[in-house]
Amino acid sequence: MKKFMDENFLLGNETAITLFHEAAKDEPIIDYHNHLSPKEIYEDKCFDNIGQAWLAGDHYKWRAMRANGVPEKLITGNGDYYEKFVAWADTVQRLIGNPLYQWTHMELQRYFGITKTLSADTAKEIWDACNEKLHTKEYSVRNLLRMQKVSVLCTTDDPADTLEWHTKLREDNFEIQVLPSFRPDKALGIEKADFQEYLGRLCKSAGVILRDVDSVLEALEKRLDFFLENGCRVSDHSLESTFFVDTTKEEVEWIFDKKLAGSELTEEECGKYKGYMLTKLGKMYARKDVVMQLHIGAFRSNSKRCLKLIGADTGFDSLNDFNYAPQLSALFNAMDLTEELPKAVVYCLNPKDTEMLASMAGNFCGNESGIKGKVQLGAAWWFCDHKNGMERQIDAMADVSLISTSIGMLTDSRSFLSFPRHELYRRILCNKIGTWVENGEYPWDKEYLCEMVKDICGRNAKKYLNL
């Protein structure tokens, strides 16, 4: 029997052990997609307790606690944080096979040096030990980032954002780059009730008068230029339903006017508007060398009762199962035909789409600029963010493309304690490569393989994002 989560956790052979400890382990982290607060980083927040650090805003944990029968008071409610922590500790012990079990204990080990397993019986001891450290300045959020050797992180930001905290961080000469990401979902969400109100706010931030679709694109470009001035390297889009239907500018203007007049739109009409805007934005990204990230397949706010009681983004989202290969192909073709396709990373929430996206990406990698993996399958995301999902993503890229061009892992997290997820991915990656070598499927070329692992763990992302 192997020891629980020791130094060779998930490393099943000597080649994997060598690759992890000599190549992957100490590489700095480039986290190019997360939802951390730049304000909390600038203010160098210190957490009151481990319950606050772990449970505030973490819908992964909330979902597990609900499945364990924990009342909402101890999840998102106004319950005492120690009581919430005990409820979480009881849930943890029941999480066999769930990635939350691994994440929880990696975080206890890497940040706090705690090797005991968390349960209802050990909750008080671990609560006290973590809080003793969290109450010191050495455990401020900036120092938590330093502990994990984070070098770059890209937050997720609305185009109308002032980027006040990014500016202050840069002026403060914080050595970790905290860069904004351009996420214009609200400008594309023509089906939303607050669409017109948002466009008014967007145009005001850009100093543009809202008149038509062109004025919205003008506002978005001005805001993108502002983001670029503040270090932006990536955009991000969440695609959750029909997102591309072939159309004309005249038809899109008619759809836009219909919406602003207060009329309901069909899903096809919304798809025409979104496809037109995505194409225009993609070409804009290509001109300005911004990476286009497409996160596809979330099915949000399923429990309308809980949406009313608790609000959105509180753990009631799941994966969708719509088929979108023709739409994605058409979207990429609309940009590629005029050689205006940007670098693009595509992420699936439904694992059935993994191989489809990996193969689709390969259709659009051709370029004369020498960009490796210009369009590529992104890291295992959200409900795929576990051992099986990471292995599936690595296998899919290796099967139909080049895993050596991958830009590696991200956290997609709101937690400052989430960065050991990069280590988990690196262990899985090294074990996968090590297994291929040990099976005689690839030669043991230590120098080359170590360099390739370092590329996937960070150097590819650095080059791809022009950091």
Explain how this protein is built.
- The protein has helices at 14-24, 38-42, 50-55, 59-67, 81-93, 99-112, 123-134, 141-147, 164-171, 185-188, 195-206, 213-229, 249-260, 267-288, 304-310, 325-336, 354-362, 387-400, 420-438, 446-464, and strands at residues 29-31, 150-154, 177-179, 181-182, 234-239, 291-296, 298-299, 318-319, 344-348, 375-377.
- It has 467 residues and is an alpha/beta fold.
- The chain has a domain at 48-139: uronate isomerase, domain 2, chain A (Orthogonal Bundle), CATH 1.10.2020.
- The protein has a five-stranded parallel sheet with strand order 4-5-6-9-10. Strands 1-2-3 form a three-stranded parallel sheet. A two-stranded antiparallel ribbon has the order 7-8.
- The longest helix has 22 residues, at 267-288.
- The radius of gyration is 23 Å and the shape is globular.
- 45% of the residues are buried.
Fold blueprint:
Layout: H1 14-24, E1 29-31, H2 38-42, H3 50-55, H4 59-67, H5 81-93, H6 99-112, H7 123-134, H8 141-147, E2 150-154, H9 164-171, E3 177-179, E4 181-182, H10 185-188, H11 195-206, H12 213-229, E5 234-239, H13 249-260, H14 267-288, E6 291-296, E7 298-299, H15 304-310, E8 318-319, H16 325-336, E9 344-348, H17 354-362, E10 375-377, H18 387-400, H19 420-438, H20 446-464
Helix pairs in contact: 1-19, 1-20, 11-12, 13-14, 14-16, 17-18, 18-19
